[in-house]
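Protocol step 4 of 6.
Sequence for Non-ribosomal peptide synthetase (Planktothricoides sp. SpSt-374) entered exactly as in the expression construct, tag removed. Do not edit the line below.
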Amino acid sequence: MKAMAEKNVLRGKESGLLSQLHPESKTQSLTSGKDKWLQGEAAATSLAYWQQQLEGVTLNIDLPVARRRPAVITGLRGKQRLIFSETLNREMKDFAESENINLLTIFLAAFHTLLYRYSGQEVIVTGAEWFEENGEEMVSPAGGTALSERVGNILPIRTNLEVVPTFRELLQTLAQGVTEAARYQNLPFEQLSQIIAPQGDRLPLPINFAYYEYPHFPSELAGVKLDSLWQELPGNRTIYLFDLALEIQVIPAGVQGCFSYNGDLFDDSTIEAMAGHFQTLLAAAVADPELNLNQLPMLTAAERELMLGEWNQLKVDYPGDGSITAQFEAQAATNPGSIALICGGEEITYGQLNGKVNQLAHYLQKLGVGPDVPVGVCLERSPLIIIALLAILKAGGVCVPLDPTYPQDRLSIILKDTQLSILLTQEKLTGQLPHYHNSPICLDTQWDSIALESQDNPPCAAIGDNLAYILYTSGSTGKPKGVEMPRSNIWHYVQSIDKHLQIRPDDIYLHTASFSFSSSIRQFLTPLTRGAKLVLATQEQSKNTLKLFELMQAENVTVCDSLQAVWAHGLHALDTISDPGTDKRLPLKLRLLLFSGGLLTADFLQTLREHLEHPPQIINIYGQTETTGNTAYPIPADLAQTTGPVSVGRPLAYRQTYILNSELQPVPIGAIGELHVSGCSLSRGYLNRPDLTQEKYIPNPFTPDTPGAILYKTGDLARYLPDGSLEIIGRTDFQVKIRGMRVETGEIESILLQHPAVKQAVVTARDTAAGERFLAAYYVAAPNQTPVNSELRAFLKEHLPDYMVPAAFMRLEAMPLTANGKLNRLGLPEPQLDLHESNTPVVAPRDDLEAKLAAIWQQVLGIKQIGIQDSFFDLGGHSLLAVELFARIEKEFGKNLILATLLQAPTIAQLATYIRDNQDLDTKSLVVMQPKGTKPPLFCIHAVGGNLLSYKELLAHLDRDQPVYGLQAQGLDGKQPILSKIEDMAALYIQEMKTVQPDGPYFIVGHSFGGFVAFEIAQQLQAAGDEVAFLGLFDAIIPGAKGRVPRQEVLKLHWHGFSENGPAYFLQKLQQKITATQNELDDSWKRLKGKYYQKQGVALPHKIRNLPIKQANHQAARAYKLQPYPGVVTLFRAAVRYDTVAWKLDPLLGWGPLAGGGLQVIDVPGGHESCLKEPYVSSLAAALTACLGKTAI
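Step 5 output, structure tokens:
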């Protein structure tokens, strides 16, 4: 009987399909003997079958819903009729007979194919129920009748499409699946639902298929049209248990059906289109069942015309002759005196910029630079890099940016791949470059020779097909790949994007992107070809969003081009340092705010608008390096969307976008497919990678009238929205975006596998609780190897940029695998941010105090598991988070701590001991920063803010045998009196220094304001007969140095600035004064708030606690009377200087006549503040260590 039943399912010719499968089910009661059956072997066998079928599958299928599921179900339902033509009815019947298959299996296969094509998911699971009329009764597979409880008749049917079959192959697979499901149907639904949805979800099977046969339908009605009988058929009813259900009804005269759907989720138009796709797909499958599922056409003729034609036909007129440099030259000729570029306080006009660019272009042409000749550019963020890039383009060459922050290994790959003959850099970076066969050209030290060249515009032999750029992106093979970008590509992009931006000469455009990324091209060429002012953020500003906010306010920026991740971090930091109830809105003057480099979300937009006093037009920009840019979407101010990714808009002019499946078939509106791009924006391909170029750049099958037209396979998953705009869903591969930068996780895996202790490696992207994305590395160690995370991290840093080094490492005994033996990425455990070595156990809190501190750290850092021996700074903590941390600690324990506490107690255990013992170190100035070591201690004096956190990164680079103590300002607790004289500070600090070192020799350093205090400490120690072995000043500038410069010299320097820059020079000075006044007013307001707290007799909040100290220190510096010091003074001078009168006239920063024993000047990389931060602090630490070693001998 069982063999006969299986044969009947495959053939489906007998009218009593289900009764022949299970004739006993007609009379078997659903409840009779149920308990006994559940205890028997048959029940165990059924349970094992369904557990195997449903193990590890997701029942949610990604369909184009219009709305999120409401908290309260409204019961709103919709129904879309399916009327199959007489021709299709006949073809289906003939096909069923020829294939020995029943209509049930054909419709179920077509339905699963439809769901697969819409979602792209490889495993499809739906509910299925089928009924046959038996006399006057409808019989279901579980026994019972059509009036029985509905859910009792549903069986889950699974289709695995990991290897895409033909439609005929799918039919055979599903026929077997239906047979097996029916064989194990007797397991009660309550047991089955526990397997499907163990958490008791409302919809254990959200999508369902129902099939009805009426073999005894009255013959006298056989000639009546099917649609007129719909309301009278007993199977017709509204289905409330499913999000989407397909019902098929078969009578002798033909077939009809409907889609029933949840109106809370789906729009009517979506299901109407889905019904059309189902019929198109069904007809194609019956006509040619040897097509695989991805080859079956789905779109109607009207949809193809709309999606392939109408939505891809934007054409506009562009200005100019196709030369991007000619547009810049036109602006320089028309407005030579207008400001073109601002960076670090320096301003350059269009005329000056064009002149310098031309000089370098002529110089390069004499060295052989011309069409398709690559020229490397390894420069810091300064006007020189803009000059260099424009000069290469004008000379006809190819720009090859090399980020100086990248490791030598990565830079070496680029140098070898491009075979550069010319490399532009600056003197200070030559030591960081890998081996290079030619001598690099240092623009800063060799400019005198370059300046001998003509300032006239040079001739350029390059045409549109010649290359403009080679940009390197992450590569899955372990090596970055060079994208070749033609000149026409760059020109077209700038013109097309400006149709949305409409950049004007009065715009002030902020540049923040790395010059190694394609967005940097938009950020500097768009404003400079439109006569606008370009503000180039320095390296320090580009990495600190709060400083970017300050820069935007100071320069009245009207166009900011940035990343969501950058702004999200900045706004969170702003919230952290703002008092509750205060106005947190930024008083910026933005006209446009552009976001690119990642998915822009609606909830972020809402947060953003809450933080802007004058919300600008926000534009979402999307594209790849290979396409330069694809789309731009000006987001409506009244956007109703509140969650999820925001649309990226329609394609820019002369570009075509196609969302296709793996067989290059267009997918329907709302369905997911891979985005392909064609048109004038495409790059040429990958340098020296013809195989990869051929794989990613394929012939365009939709433009037969355009020979040679190419499609680029982006690898991005996307869907069309009803208005023709695009929504980006994710990736087809394992490429991710980290802080807006594209990362091929395969490249990280390839490098990690080169470590001898690693056998297997997988890298994925995860999100913290705060929504910040990070990389997590999973690895299986090689036999007899136990690598530690710090070792693996250091290894990766030798080869990869910092943003590509995972934040979390997790060792696994084995990688999780699917049933087919493939890596199961969904089975990878949730990673922990790198709190400790994975083979070192986490030390749990030992008492209530440590437990409370651990909870606070988890909230502030967004990390689930923290051990009491884990360092705050190792967990990613920084000064802004420290403010929030201590504010929470004060609220919880009433303990008023200062930020420097973290330097001496950076772990939970140490901080708990500090609080438990109620030490009074917060009322002292002396702070133990690094207690161990046999060398004489080094004393570090606070800067103008009063705390010592600015020395944190320096400590990490000093010898472990070097004890370090810090002196912080009195009054940081908000209660003690603030000292207002440098002499008094020095006297107090000497008293506390002598508690740990009663006698000399003393080693003292101070940064900025701290340099004056260190100088006075050395004076008082010398006067008392104590030996001072070393006095080091970190970029300390004597206040009032400008006042000692003769007036004639000051006027001469101002005149020189005016002759070079015109009236803009004085406008710059005026703007600096205005900015300084604004800052002073802001500080004054905060000081008033501080006085209010002091009047109330309470400690100042952490967020404003150092403002009175900062003010007092400024006054103390101005009042301090410096006297010559009899010893040697060592000045560590920051290389990055602001263009001011004092620094130009006195390179010794005022210290020359005050160093009686001689002044030693050591130049260190970075700026006034950044010299103490990565990546520059290592140079300062090395120079300081060398000095300490010499003086200690």
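Step 6, annotate. The CA atoms of residues 561 and 594 lie 5 Å apart.
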